[in-house]
Amino acid sequence: VRVVDNGRGIPVGIHPVEKKPAVEVVLTVLHAGGKFGGGGYAVSGGLHGVGVSVVNALSYKLAVEIRTDGYRWTQEYKSGVPTAPLERHEATTETGTTVTFWADGDVFETTDYSFETLSRRFQEMAFLNKGLTLTLTDERESAKATAGAE
Predict the structure, then answer these.
(1) Most buried among 73, 113, 115, 126, using CB within 10 Å?
(2) CA–CA distance, 145 with 126 (Å, rounded to integer)
(3) How far apart are CA 43 and CA 130, in angstroms?
(4) pLDDT digits (tens, 9 = 90+) for 34-76
């Protein structure tokens, strides 16, 4: 599963308390997301700060790509643990985050996702968040659906 956004990008600077990149903290520590406190996001469909860290912990592999601070950054995880340090790549003017994850078949009964179920959920999220557009593409069957603002 791949989720792509064009937001500001998960921060990559060193976290003042944890002394490691903020993206690593966001992906490995519960309640570490940026939606709590004064500088939160304008739109969020989150789970009280546990969303992406739980996805990471329950995935046998997760890859994150961040476009922020003038560069593209990447890091990979295995079962919630970083496999290498955050890596800086080429310069870019784009911003956003791409998270690709492979759910752990040892944890979940099934890792096959229903296009119809996801499409309905995205329609609900788009309805509840003014200005949000969600596009769902199923590369298994070449199906595509868009919900929300155009």
Answers:
(1) 73
(2) 12
(3) 9
(4) 543 444 444 444 544 578 999 999 999 999 999 999 999 999 9
